[in-house]
Amino acid sequence: MRTRRSRWIAAPLAVVVALALAGCTQAQLQGYMPSESGLTNHVDRIMGLWTTSWIVLLGVGLITWGLMIWAGIAYRRRRGQSGLPVQLRYHMPFEIFFTIVPVILIAGFFAFTARDQAAIEEPIEDPDYSLTVYGKRWAWDFVYEREGQDPVYFQGLQAQVDPESNQIDAESLPTLYLPTDSSIEITLEARDVAHSFWIVEYLYKKDMLPGLTNHMYFETGSQEGTLTGKCAELCGEYHSQMLFDVELVSPEEYDAYLETLEAAGNVGAIDASINPFTGDDNVDTEADEAFDTTNEGENDR
After folding, report:
1. Which candidate in 28, 33, 57, 238 could, as Cys together with 138 as Cys, close a disulfide (CB 3.0–4.6 Å)?
2. Are the C-beta atoms of 271 and 278 separated by less than 8 Å?
3. Cβ–Cβ contacts within 10 Å for residue 286, how many?
């Protein structure tokens, strides 16, 4: 009898859940995350962890709220009653239940998060492309490695604000080029203080710390287009203007862009020599001189 009753309860519940999920939009199914499926080999994994976690937590919340409302109604004071209700001090089954269930939930969240993070952080032994990103107050430098040739680079300035509209001038943003359908390794360095490299649509960010080299590994999908990048670590007065664009282009267009950098004379390696923590306070670069000139009277580097 109890088994039959459980089936009558479970079957309609399963139908309701299936219909609810079937009516969800793609944005809802991916937890309203600002990305698209297949953008990298990690994006779907991250969206799956996020959405599943919210479903589990919402279920726990509904059960908890339901029990609270039920207890408030079932054990409310009736007309004619007076005094205190029967006081219960201990109920071991409930105590054990309320201890074990949270432990299981926390352990489950930890296990799935650790599994996905380990997969995301797994190095790519032989990436198709390698590049280095330098964070600096308050802009970015990009160094593109080339097989059998000297690297080429782009040195950017912080985003400029239009004094009339008080809006960011999109044309002033540094642009990082990435090839589609490729495995990529990005080496992350900080020139001065702690920064954080964040391509918003990739749903993952990585710290950039002075004196410490970090890496990001991922495989891009076939989608081309423009993505949003920013610093995700409060790094000073103009942190909000430490922005950049990401252009996803075909490998052919990527190689063509590197050729334009070479034609402009941006050839050779650059390093973190302007990092104030290296002990050499007299080293500067053309990009920093241009930055100082642009922001003269505003910033003290």
Report:
1. 238
2. no
3. 8
Which domains can be identified in the chain, with CATH numbers?
Answer: 2-70+92-121 (no CATH), 129-294 (2.60.40.420)
Q: Are 202 and 283 in contact (CB under 8 A)?
A: no
SS3 at position 198: strand
Residues 183, 189, 194, 196: what is their CA dihedral angle, to the nearest 10 degrees? -20
Distance CA 147, CA 50 (A): 38
Chain centroid to CA 113: 14
- Beta-bridge partner residues of 197: 206, 231
The H or E element that residue 288 is part of is helix 286-294
Residue whose token pair is 């495995």: 183
Residue showing tokens 């698209």? 36
b (16+ CB within 10 A) / e for 141-165: bbbbbbeeeebbbbbbbbbeeeeee
How does strand 225-231 pair with strand 195-199? antiparallel
pTM reported for the whole predicted model = 0.76
Q: Quick one: pLDDT at residue 274? A: 60
What is the signed CA dihedral for 95, 97, 98, 103, rounded to 10 degrees?
130
Q: What is the block-wise mean pLDDT of the chain (301 residues), using blocks of 10 residues? A: 52 54 57 80 93 91 92 86 79 88 94 95 94 94 94 92 85 94 96 94 94 94 94 93 96 96 91 56 41 42 37
DSSP annotation of 267 reads B
Residue range 144-159, pLDDT digits in tens: 999 989 999 999 999 9
Counting Cβ atoms within 10 Å, is residue 207 exposed (0-12), middle (13-18) or buried (19+)? middle
